[in-house]
């Protein structure tokens, strides 16, 4: 089971540094009771799919020196409509595909949605597993992967169609697709059994692409809903 939090003082360490700090006791695992507010170039955050058990409250793991300085925009409740996504193991990739198509005013046939979702998964595999030179561009994703398992094992698993995507894949795809992504949880999960009908943002990826860069137009955000047991839907 994945540790709920990895906390260390280095700003942008490599994988070997993190593992050595863990061995020496300089890095540690720690529990946090509140959702993580954001991800920036200085911090890496674990996936909302990281749980202690089904009966505990949500805990999110993050690699970073502190939790201070989070964006106020990521602490408020928001309201959207939920577009359900098929729960076949591809849900993260399906939700991203649906969201990017929706932002362009395009409706996808279920077959196209599935095929495009698999293409996103394989794009991550190619970036992380097949090209050593390209891999170094995704240091945060590599850290998130290798804290839990070996890169070899990860590269074996991601080839499967039922591979469950999460934090590492969002880190990669936000860059590959130049796509701003925000992940939410239902308000009632955040309030520990409350009945709120809104959504709380907990993680942000690729925010720079939503601002426009050079001659590139700003990209519309894709909003993903993480809820229940390892499932993503789309918010619109």
TrEMBL record:
Domain OTU stretches: 80-236
Question: Do you know which PROSITE patterns this protein is assigned to?
Answer: OTU
In which broad location class does this protein mainly occur, judging by the first location in its UniProt entry? Answer: cytoplasm
Record bears the keyword Cytoplasm: yes
Q: Which SUPFAM superfamilies match?
A: Cysteine proteinases
**What taxonomic ancestry is recorded?**
Eukaryota, Viridiplantae, Streptophyta, Embryophyta, Tracheophyta
Protein name stated in the entry? Ubiquitin thioesterase OTU
Compartments, as annotated in UniProt: Cytoplasm
Which Pfam families does the protein's record reference? Answer: OTU (PF02338)
One GO cellular component term, please give it. nucleus
- What's a single GO BP term from this record? protein deubiquitination
Role played: Hydrolase that can remove conjugated ubiquitin from proteins and may therefore play an important regulatory role at the level of protein turnover by preventing degradation.
Gene Ontology molecular functions: cysteine-type deubiquitinase activity
